[in-house]
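How it folds
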Amino acid sequence: MQKQLHPNISVDCVIFGFDFEKLNVLLVERTYLHPETKEVIFSDYTLAGNHVYVDENLVDAAKRVLNNLTGLDNIYLEQFYAPEDPGRLLKKNDQLWLKKEGKNPEERVVSVCYFSLLNCKEVSIQKKDRNVDWHPISEIRNLGFDHDIILAQALKSLQVKLQNEPIGYEMLPLKFTLSQLQKLYEVVFDMEFDKRNFRKKVSKMKYLIQLDEKQKGVSHKPARYYIFSRDVYEKTKSDILNFSV
């Protein structure tokens, strides 16, 4: 028997990805064609998301969305927002899209929003029937539905979380350099950090373990690799690293 989606409850997922240079967000292309002439009426992008099955909890729905796009399980997931505006789906393009999808555009849909963190270099996106790709967050404008608002709230939530917990390692490879770690913080907070001060703060992170291994095949002086130890972090949670300025 086919599972039934709840028409009024959905999840929206802000999937952040770091590529060592930029903070990216995974977006889904949305193109509406005239039903008769097949002329493109509009084309834009939205965040990833879906309605919740009637017998499915919210976290499982968000995990399903992420798995469908990445093929991965156990991705970092954080609930951060639920839009309150009852008129959030009333824009003309959104109404056209909902009708095309067989949904009643007059019905209110309550969305619960999650953000997740990935290393772009280690993820193979499964595009399936719609175009899905990474977009630099600095270039994202005019998303469908109310997704601009959701994305802005997601970035604020990520910044607050990253100031107090070492979740940034979810966007880094297992072994990384201090320069890569600093670049991650800079793109998330959209600011430059003084190298000396940054490393002074990082040196207090007991859960950052230095390896006896350096980069190979690079044109510059090879940097030493580090790893994040979750076991050490769990034992030293009280030693909070704060990057606020």
